[in-house]
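Could you help me review a protein record that somebody else here produced? This is what I was given.
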Amino acid sequence: MNDLRQLKHFIALAEHGSFARAALALHLSQPALSRSLQNLEASLGCRLIDRHTRRLGLTAQGRMLLEHARRLVAASQAMTRAVQQIDNLQAGQLCMGAGPYPAAGLVPQAVARLISDYPQLQVEVLVDDWRELRQRLLREEIEIFVGDVRELLDDPALDIQRLPVCPVIAVCRPGRPLLQQHEVDFRHAAEWPLAGTHLPESVAAEVRRDTGRDQALSIQCDNVAFLLQLLQHSDAICMAPSDILRQPLAEGLLCELTSLSARIRQHSAYGLVSRRGHSLSPAAAALCSRLPQPATGSIDSASRMLPVTP
């Protein structure tokens, strides 16, 4: 049986596409990584990597192994976490995900409360959009995630717990002439670059309809720090949940376009997402209890939404 270290090395190589990047991510030398892969290939009696292309590719055997290796490594990590966390959150570990906007406010606040109570708990937070977080969850790379759930509500593989709603507001840098206009509508906004994170299709369609633009956004980036810097140094406009904008607004780094905000019908649709039929670890349950309580009626009542359990 191949040891898990070799499988982890193989997964990293497949994901990074080069020995140099994989070795750097694993904190190994390239010769050590190469020997590990050679030993794995020797034990399986087949080649796993196609070394004759510019970017390393997987052979058919390599693609098959990658699928099983990810499951084995995830299962091993889940087993370790489960054993360590039984009646002992101090020695446990939590691997979770967060969407770009929750990662800029809601999630760090909850994690701060969690590690204040359990300072020895190890927490890893992966930030990505809802599509990639769903895949990571189903591959058991993360246990839970907080993100936009509008496109996940009908997914039978998921349990979704609603979280409080935040209004979406429009902001820009101080000094913009738009701020002096009595009324700013979507057509005015469409004359300037619109920036934001990747949008669910239902939201993107509404933005296109309101602005008359072919593309909902001019600049798309899932890094909120980048977006805030962009707004402060350009004429871009951003429509985003108010919870992540409170601090830059209070510090005078951004200004709200109040008349445009009043026209926005969208709001945040944050949810806490886990795999259906899987009980949460003590660490995940502790994190859930430190998130804000759900707001009733914030998301389509026909959807499958569960209350957050303290």
Remarks:
- The chain is about 40% helix and 15% strand.
